[in-house]
Amino acid sequence: MAGLTAGRTLQARGWEVTLLDKGRGFGGRMATRSVGSGQFDYGAQFFTARDVRFGEAIRRWESAGWVAPWFTQDGFEHEAHTRYRAEGGMSALAGHLAEGLDVRRASRVGSVEPSGAGWNVMADSGEVFRAGVLLLTPPAPQTAELLAGIATRLQPDVIPVLNSIVFDPCYALLAALDGPGKVPFPGYIRPTSGPIEWIADNSAKGVSRGNAALTIHARADFSDRYFDSPRDEVAAVLLEAAAPWMGGPATEWHLHRWKYSKPTTGDLPLCLFSREPAPLAIAGDAFGGSRVEGAFLSGLAAAGIFAEGF
Ligand SMILES: Cc1cc2nc3c(=O)[nH]c(=O)nc-3n(C[C@H](O)[C@H](O)[C@H](O)COP(=O)(O)OP(=O)(O)OC[C@H]3O[C@@H](n4cnc5c(N)ncnc54)[C@H](O)[C@@H]3O)c2cc1C
């Protein structure tokens, strides 16, 4: 979301933009995939708007038929924000946002190096991209890895700030059922104890058709403790804990392990900049806030500062 937002904003102002994403699909942690006949959002589950600029973007997307309200409040005490879902899943929204942009998917950036007044960006494919300015929006620890080789040439605050950012891991178990599940209306439940943080029925949410399709997110402490455990064992624990909301065994399941799920660090600027050794910005949800809206605002801020001449 950070990269797409910045790319769209700068391209609209006449910039020539290329986005490189190592993912095969669109959207990073706004991720959707199929398991059996079910469709699953397995990263971000919904988004909310607290900032007027994100609220305006959501209204535009709603008019285009890309997003729709899922629910408001319902158990999220003290938070009366409308929760939005994307038609066809989160990744489909990212795909819409990528329309008209030069997005190279399955293009992992292996290294970046300053060259003259700009940057050379080396993809694992061997392709080298030349850029006047560079915006990095991977999760902050991955950005730190990319910059490790040129750390001493950046403005001094950049690497310490990146190194201070901590992300929680998260297991996402996707379970396809052969009938309706038992997740209550409007299609999510937050168990109060046990290893599970959240269960959503993608069928009730409108992302999947037919039988229940459950996204089961483990709590951060469970995901951390069992991060290197055998997948079958982790899945068995989560399926057993989810049984009261399943109504029958899973016909198929898939376990995804998010190493970088949500940043837990707060109070950072909306993005980082370094003029040295060449124009560089760093954005993402670690800066704007640990949600889709935060990534949007961070990308918007990075684009704004580039557009204003840094
Ligand atoms: C399990 C889970 C549940 C969540 N639930 C919610 C929720 O309900 N509501 C909400 O608002 N938010 C939620 N979030 C958070 C939300 O998904 C993120 O805040 C937001 O999507 C982050 O966007 P981003 O652009 O900062 O980063 P990302 O979406 O992580 O994008 C970074 C991109 O960088 C790419 N990349 C990384 N390294 C390289 C490289 N070397 N070369 C090329 N490309 C690279 C990745 O492929 C990725 O596409 C959830 C996240 C997770 C994981």
Question: What does it look like?
Answer:
The protein folds into 2 domains: 2-158 and 265-307, FAD/NAD(P)-binding domain (3-Layer(bba) Sandwich); 167-263, Alpha-Beta Complex (Polyamine Oxidase, Chain A, domain 2), CATH 3.90.660.10. By secondary structure, it is of the alpha+beta class. The relative contact order is 0.19. The model has no long low-confidence stretch (mean pLDDT 96). The radius of gyration is 20 Å and the shape is globular. Strands 12-13-14-11-15 form a 5-stranded antiparallel sheet. It has helices at 2-12, 52-63, 90-98, 140-147, 158-163, 202-205, 220-225, 231-242, 285-288, 292-307, and strands at residues 18-20, 32-35, 38-41, 67-72, 82-86, 102-104, 109-115, 118-123, 128-131, 134-136, 167-176, 188-189, 196-201, 213-218, 252-263, 272-274, 280-282. Flavin-adenine dinucleotide (FAD) binds at residues 1-3, 20-23, 28-30, 43-47, 108-109, 137-139, 142, 170, 172, 217, 258, 261-262, 284-285, 290-292, 294-295.
In total, the number of strands is: 17
Q: What string gives the helices and strands in order? A: HEEEHEEHEEEEEHHEEEHEHHEEEHH
Assigned CATH architecture of the largest domain: 3-Layer(bba) Sandwich
CATH top level of the largest domain? Alpha Beta
- Cα distance spanning the termini: 22 Å
Whole-number radius of gyration?
A: 20 Å
Shape: globular
State the secondary-structure class: alpha+beta
Query: What's the total helix number?
Result: 10
* CATH evolutionary superfamily of the largest domain: FAD/NAD(P)-binding domain
Overall structural domain count? 2
